[in-house]
Each structure stands twice: as C-alpha cells, then as structure tokens.
C-alpha cells in the first residue's frame, strides 16, 4: 500500500463525523424535484454542492441551468493525461416525502437511530454523493488525486423526462472520460459488496382498441358488436404462451444467451424464490420456463400489463358495451434487444392478430435501451480489488430488472463503460417512508472508493 | 262493432286535444326519481295521477308510500267476476334531463313541432300512461268497462333497486289479475305495430383477480410474479370460442331452441345488419355463428365485458405490476336460463381455469330472469286483432335484448302472462336529449287500446 493511500484512508476514518455532518446539511434541504414549491430548495442544494466541491479541491466548478433544474459540474484534472478520467454521476433531487404520516421522524431532519441515519435522500442518493465527496477529499487533503475526476450531478432524476440526456449530448467534450462511476445502485447486504453490471431496457406502450362510436347498451347490442374490451383481452392474452414466453415473432432473436459462467455468478446472489415470494406476498411464483428467478428478472426480457381500462369501473353495475379499451403494456429488454424494434414487432403482432371488427392504435410512451458493462474491464477489476480489501470478499455481480436511463445515455453518447455500485442496503426504503442509510456500510464504502481510485492508477 | 265501442272510439278521437293537454300537465312536473331535490315533484306527480284516475272513473284510488317514492294504485272492477282483469303498469318517474345543453327546447316545457311533442318523459313513459288513461276514459265516459282494470304506477323505474318487487310480493291479492299490460315498450316504426314477447334476463358480476399484496415495480418483479391483469385477460379471453360462443360448461343447456316458425317471425323485423352497423358506427358485425343479428341480440344468450380495470390508467407511464385486476362481466339470458345457475357455472369456470398463482373473487351484482310471453295467449290474440283493425297489418313479434325486471317480477310473483306494447317509435331519444313522441301514432295507440279492451271480453 502506498503511503498516500494509507494516510488518505486514515483521514477518511478520522473524518467520519464530518462526513455525517455534511450529509445532514445536504439532506436538510428538501430538494424534491417534482414539487414546484421546492424550486428554491433545488437551487439551494445545487449551490451547496458547488461550494462543497470547491472546498474539497475541485479546480473548476460550475452550475449549468437547464429549462428545469440545474446541473452541477466539477472537475479536477491534475492527475494528467496519462491517468484515467472517471466521470462520477449523482442526483441531488429526492422523492416526495409521501406518505408523510408513516414517517417516525421528520423526513428532512436527519435522525440517528443506532447505526442508521433516517431521512429522505439518506440512501437515494445524498448519502452516496457525500461518500464520493469524502473519498475524494480524503485523497486531496493528503496529496494529489491518482486519477482525473469529473462530477456530473443532476436535479431531475426523480422526475420524468430529465434534461440530462440533452446536456450530455451538448457537452461531450466537457464530459469526456474513460469510464463512468454510478454510485446510485446498492449492495445486497451490509457484508455483500455488489456490482450491477446489467440493467434492463424498456419499451412502454399504450394500446387502444376502438369499437363502436360510443358506449352502447349491452342488452340491445350484446351479441352483434365485437366488444373492444373482449378484443383487448384476446390480444393481450395471446402475448404469452403457456411456457411464460412472449409470443411476438422475433422477440427473442437479439437476446444474448446466458453463458454457464454468468449463470454460476448469478446463482451466488441471495435472491432465491423465497425472497420474491416474501417481498411480493404471493403463494407461488410464475415465469419463463428454464430460468431461475434471478435470471427471469434480470437477464431475460419480459412483458407486463401495467394498466387496463374499459367501460364502467365504479361501484355497482352499468350495462354498457364499451366504445373502446385501453392498456398500458411494457416490455423489459436485455442486450441486444432494441426498444424501437420491439415497437415494430408489437405492431406486426397487432396487424396479424387484431380482428377487422375493430381498429387499434399503439403509441410508444418510452424507449430505453438495455445496458451491460464488461465484467472484466479494468475499472471493474479495480473495484473488485477495492471491495475485496475492504469487505474481505469478492463482490456479487448483479443484473437489475429495472432501467436506469442515465447509464444507457452515457454509454451510448460518450461511448464509455459504467461501474454501477452503491452502499445502500435492503431495507433502506428508497422512495418510501423512513428512508435510511446504514452508516457503517457507508463509511466502508468511502474506504472502498479510496482504494478504487488508487487501484485505477496501477 | 258494438255500439259502445263505436261511441268510445269517437269519444277518443274527439278528445285528442284534451289528451294532449293532460300529457303536457303531467310532463311539466319534473319527476326525476334519482334527484333528491325533486322529491316534491315526485310527490306532486303521484298526487296528480291520483286525482286524474279518480276523475276518469276509477272506483278506488290510493297512494302507497314506500321507503323512497310512492306507488299509485287504482281499480275499477265493475265488469264483474266473469270478465277478465287486466293489471296496467306504468312509471311516472323520468330520467334526468342531461345533457341539458343539447336540448333544443326546455325539457320540462312540452313543445309541439309538427307531429311531434318534445319533452322529457314524452315517450318514456308519461305519454303512454296518458294513452291508457284516455282509452279507459273514452270507454267509461260512454258506458261501462268491458273488463276489470287495475293500475299500478311506480315512481322508481329509472332508479336502481325499485321497491316495486317488494310491493308486489306484499300485495298479491290486491294486484291479482288475469294478465299484465305493460305499455313501456315501443313500435319499430309509425306503421309497424309491435308486440314484445320476450326479454332477456341478466346476470351481472364483478370479478377480481388478486396477486401480490401491493403494486410492485415491474422492472424488479417482472418475470417472476404472475401479473393479475394478465391472468384476467387469459380468463376473460377464454370465455368465448372462435365461433363467438360462450365457453362456460353448460351455458347453453337450458336455452330454448328457436323454432323455424319463430325464426320466420323474427326475420320480418326491419332490423337487418345495416341497422346495427349504422347505429353502432362499426364497419363490421360480430357474433355467434349460425344466427342472424336479430336472433343474436334477442333470442341468444351473450356475455359482455362491461368494465375492466387494473393498475395505472392515467396519462403517461408508470412501471407498475398491479396488485389486482377487476372486471365487470354480464351475461344476457334467454328462457329457460337461470341467472343463479349462471353464477355457479361462472364459478366453476374460474375454479377450473384460474391458475394457483393468484386468488379470485366473483360477486353477483344483479340477477334477473329472462321472460317470455305466450304468443298465442288470448290477451295477445286480442291485441293482434286490435292492431290489425287500427293499422291494417299484423303486429311484429319482437324479442328485446335488454331486461325489464318488472315484467319478470309480475310474471313470477303473480303467475300471469304479460302483453308488452307501446307507442313510441325509433328516434324518440329515450334517456337522451330532445326526447319526443309522435302524436298521430300515440292517438292511434289509444284507439288500439279501446279495441283491445273490448276484444278481451269476447
């Protein structure tokens, strides 16, 4: 271990109290991005970050306004052209505090209980932002950075339609880097360091089936009009076969097959069937034959009905034959599926299967590509080594079923790979009441980051 | 023709102006049964009927209060025990005037335009009530009634859950009769006298499919949880085969087959495919193979989805895997199907087809038996003869796809057959804006009723 690394680690350990105080300061600003009344708090959080980044030794710090909430950028490129450059992502906005009645302490008054700090944003992701700040500070206060560092911190992650994608496209040179560090994922347990190397993409649709020109009396017309709700159930039901597979022609054509080595890695995850049964409160699981639950949710594409509407849905009865039916349908995609191609496949399915007694319309509401990082990249290798040093064990490799658009956008626009990590653990209640962060794990995370940055140089 | 009948018919013809004035008086009372603020108008309408029935020669007239809106009863039994007794049904309540903006004249200010009178209730059914009054008055003002007459006029037809059924059960002796005259149906055209001899029954259900204990993230759980919306579409889709038949085992077991003679009668109706295509605004019809449109809507049982709900149905996207799905499903039934048996068949279908990954619940929201009148009964024979005299042609025999609970209740509780007629014609806009009645047809209807009452005696 270099002397500088040793000293930096000691600095980080000695300054846990300061780290905690910084977290509390940032968390106390209720920067809820969806609430127009919090616009001043959003601005305040951005300014706080700017000052903090300057104080800890970033050489250039700037706030970029966007049509909505500002983006904070900072850099320290003193490591020089020979050293790798890492772009660290963060978002300083948080979810609303709803349901407020279920909080045991004020959501914006950070409250320590045992090893946990309770507050909105403690895990998602102000705690993680401060962890990266503390790691960088520990190194800079004890010497020079071994790598070039850029920070990109947005205020619109918890809101639909972030301007970040546009910003990245318009600032490719500013953001140029060797790889992308996204500390917005998590760990599967306090002693289970984890690396998320794949995220599913999404294609989200609204399907409408149109029948009669207006709602009809089901007594007078029942028997001669093809009920759009019935057509909808026929079409949606036909999208799965009895092995749980999606029936759209060509749906699986571009799916990268799981190799045995990857299946072995995934089988290490502590996410057995019991986990899903407990979390969902169901008696039995369901899914595509031939795959484990972890594979089904992370490594296989799926199709879900997210919403369904037709006719009369209030209390009681109304004998209506509905004029139309609507469904929200989404597919989760894995490499190398393409959301736009899935849209075409869905249209083909409808063209081939919808009866000529109705008309239909398929609108695309969202399209994000799936993403995958090279598990053998030098960046991931550097994090594996860091995690092994801090936690004494090899990290778990995780595929996440959800979609994180920023990772895909940066991969696609800047052409670099991502390292997705994080120090939040299960039970952190992201987006829910009593959100919390496990402080000992977060402090270990800071040490892991110090190791990581030094490992990158080698 | 008897002298009395001749004189009565002349009286009716001479008093068309008085009939029209009476209609206008009754229509001007806005007796909307669903509007609590019209409670006084409901009472006023009942009192108006009581006075009118006394004036025209009923020997006993009474208003029976119910927990909601009163029932008006009247009788004149002077024809004696040898003569048949007819129970004439009516309802003095009307639909709300919505949408008020689309009315060309005030809904409760009866307005004559050409041969039509426009007003809420003009066809449904204050006009028809006055027609029966005018026929009875014409006979009573010129002699004695050839039959015993009872009137039963309720104020809750346009509202859910009428108390009439209870009233009939509790007053079987008072209402005892040889048959039941229901002037609340219509004619298929101004020169097409019609007799409705069959009404479909209904069984209305709410089906719930329950999956996870709460809405889940479709990215995290999509692939291992059986989506209740998907199960719902599978179950509903399975309820029809590709010949348009309902697949519940035993669904058709009790259906009376259509005989050729009845099919011939039904084929006379001016309700070809074009009629349904125009009315519904569809490009193509659909239905059970082997039957005409009139047969499908009137003489065959059907199953419709009346409503469908699951998950997120607002604008935009939400990646939810819903906790449950709900459907409103109803079957229209024909003799001799039993709505309670259909409930059992539906439960059996669900028990056999629902997967064990979800739970389900089937609630029965309504159950009314189908009804059919003997087309060769003396009562219908008497009306055929009356219609032939007035319109010069044999009436059409109509089966209606909707359900009219009062007809079934009276048939079942009092054990008598029904004669369902009426003098409203297509375009009368029942329940819609600009409701109207064709006065020349209504006046002919009064003459038909005079003939009918005399014919009954023979």
The chain pair forming the largest interface, with residue counts per chain, is: A-B, 79 and 79 residues
Task: Describe the largest sheet of chain A.
Answer: 6 strands, mixed
Structural class of chain A: alpha+beta
Percent of residues in helices of chain A:
25-40%
Task: Tell me the fraction of residues in β-strands of chain A, as a range.
Answer: 15-25%
CATH class of the largest domain in chain A: Alpha Beta
Quaternary status: homodimer
Overall pLDDT level of chain A: 96
| CATH homolog superfamily of the largest domain in chain A | Zn peptidases
Give the radius of gyration of chain A: 25 Å
Unreliable parts of chain A? none
Count of helix runs of chain A: 15
> Which overall shape of chain A is indicated by the principal axes computed on the Cα atoms?
globular
Any idea of the CATH topology of the largest domain in chain A? Aminopeptidase
User: Architecture of the largest domain in chain A, according to CATH?
Assistant: 3-Layer(aba) Sandwich
Number of strands of chain A: 18
First CA to last CA of chain A: what distance?
A: 12 Å
- Strand ordering within the main sheet of chain A: 1-2-6-3-7-17
Structurally, the number of domains of chain A stands at 2
């Amino acid at each position: 271990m270099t002397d500088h690394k040793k000293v930096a680690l000691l600095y980080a350990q000695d300054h846990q109290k300061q780290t905690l105080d910084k977290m509390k300061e940032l968390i106390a600003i209720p920067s809820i991005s969806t609430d127009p009344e919090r616009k001043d708090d959003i601005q305040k959080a951005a300014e706080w970050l700017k000052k903090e980044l300057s104080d800890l030794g970033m050489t250039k710090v700037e706030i970029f306004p966007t049509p909505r909430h500002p983006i904070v950028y900072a850099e320290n490129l003193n490591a020089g052209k020979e050293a790798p450059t890492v772009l660290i992502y963060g978002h300083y906005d948080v979810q609303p505090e709803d349901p407020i009645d279920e909080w045991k302490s004020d959501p914006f008054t950070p409250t320590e209980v045992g090893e946990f700090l309770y507050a909105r944003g403690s895990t998602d992701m102000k705690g993680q932002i401060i962890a990266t700040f503390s790691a960088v500070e520990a190194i800079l206060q004890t010497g020079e950075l071994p790598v070039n560092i850029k920070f990109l911190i947005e205020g619109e992650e918890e809101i639909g339609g972030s301007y970040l994608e546009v910003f990245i496209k318009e600032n490719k040179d500013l953001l140029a880097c060797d790889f992308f560090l996204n500390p917005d994922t998590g760990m599967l347990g306090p002693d289970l360091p984890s690396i998320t190397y794949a995220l599913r993409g999404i294609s989200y649709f609204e399907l409408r089936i149109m029948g009669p020109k207006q709602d009809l009396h089901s007594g007078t017309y029942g028997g001669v009009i093809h009920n759009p709700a019935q057509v909808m159930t026929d079409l949606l039901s036909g999208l799965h076969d009895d092995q749980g597979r999606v029936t759209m022609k060509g749906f699986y054509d571009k799916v990268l097959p799981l190799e045995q080595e990857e299946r072995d890695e995934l089988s290490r995850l502590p996410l057995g069937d019991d986990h899903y049964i407990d979390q969902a409160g169901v008696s039995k699981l369901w899914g595509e034959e031939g795959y484990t639950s972890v594979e089904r949710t992370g490594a296989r594409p799926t199709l879900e009905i997210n919403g369904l509407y037709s006719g009369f849905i209030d209390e009681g009865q109304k004998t209506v034959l509905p004029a139309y039916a609507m469904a929200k349908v989404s597919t989760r995609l894995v490499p190398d599926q393409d959301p736009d191609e899935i849209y075409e496949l869905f249209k083909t399915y409808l063209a081939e299967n919808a009866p000529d007694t109705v008309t239909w319309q398929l609108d695309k509401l969202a399209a994000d590509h799936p993403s995958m990082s090279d598990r053998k990249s030098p960046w991931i290798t550097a994090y594996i080594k860091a995690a092994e040093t801090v936690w004494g064990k090899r990290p778990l490799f995780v595929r996440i079923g959800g979609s994180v658009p920023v990772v895909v956008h940066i991969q696609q626009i800047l052409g670099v790979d991502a390292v997705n990590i994080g120090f939040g653990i299960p039970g952190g209640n992201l987006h829910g009441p009593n959100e919390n962060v496990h402080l000992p794990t977060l402090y270990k995370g800071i040490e892991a980051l110090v190791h990581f940055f030094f490992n990158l140089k080698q």
